[in-house]
Amino acid sequence: MAIERTLSIIKPDGVEKGIIGKIIGRFEEKGLKPVAIRLTQLSKAEAEGFYAVHKARPFFADLVKFMTSGPVVLMVLEGENAVARNREIMGATDPKKADAGTIRKDFATDIEKNTVHGSDSVENAKIEVSYFFPEVQVHAYEWKKLA
Ligand code: GDP
Ligand code: MG
Predict the structure, then answer these.
(1) Mean per-residue pLDDT over the chain, rounded
(2) What is the pTM (predicted TM-score) of this model?
(3) Residue 142 needs a FRET pair 20 to 30 A away by CA distance; which of 27, 56, 111, 118 works?
(4) Active site residue 117
(5) 117 touches ligand 1 (CB under 6 Å)
(6) Angle at 108 between CA 55 and CA 31, to 5 degrees
């Protein structure tokens, strides 16, 4: 199994709901280690650039508006198969279709305000991590977890 890094975002609805800690806790419990974290508010240009692949989609303008509507938490998560593992922990894009026990099933409001972002491939993860975090802001460490 490969150790990977992936980009995770706690979206404005997750920050507003006061569940930053709960979400990070789920990642830690499930073997994904935060190796970079920053709370920030995205500019329109940052959100448009980040979601450029969705530019032609009908929901693009609304998505950019939502993603810039309040603070977000940007994170790099590290672990075995981190990209796919993060997507499993998040659940499906539409919370109505998300499996029980996933973040989106438990916390999301709707298909847009769905609480978390996660990179969808190893290749995109590299691009997305470097979009927000220069390498010097990512700090690897070993876990010595309590039993
Ligand atoms: P993800 O990879 O599971 O986050 O989903 P996508 O990459 O397909 O879409 C990016 C984000 O756009 C989603 O997480 C939602 O916030 C939003 N989104 C996706 N589909 C829709 C839609 O049909 N309507 C609206 N309003 N937003 C959507
Ligand atoms: Mg996506």
Answers:
(1) 97
(2) 0.98
(3) 118
(4) yes
(5) yes
(6) 95
Identify whether 143 is part of a domain.
no
CATH code of residue 45: 3.30.70.141
* Domain extent for 44: 3-137
Nearest CA to ligand 1 atom 8: 93
Give the ranges where 3-102 is alpha helix by DSSP (H): 12-16, 20-29, 44-50, 60-67, 82-90
- Residues whose CB is less than 8 angstroms from the CB of residue 100 and which lie 6 or more positions away in sequence, other chains included: none
Flag whether pLDDT at 147 surpasses 80.
Answer: no
Inside any domain, residue 82: yes
**Residue 147 domain-assigned?**
no
What is this model's ipTM? 0.98
Best probe residue, ligand 1, of 51, 99, 110, 112 (max atoms within 8 Å of C-beta):
112
Q: In angstroms, what is the span from residue 69 Cα to ligand 1's centroid?
A: 16
102 within ligand 1 shell (Cβ under 6 A):
no
Domains in the chain: how many in total? 1
pLDDT tens digits, 52-85: 999 999 999 999 999 999 999 999 999 999 999 9
Q: Is residue 28, in this structure, part of any structural domain at all?
A: yes
Q: Residue 134 half-sphere exposure, CB side, CA atoms within 13 Å?
A: 1
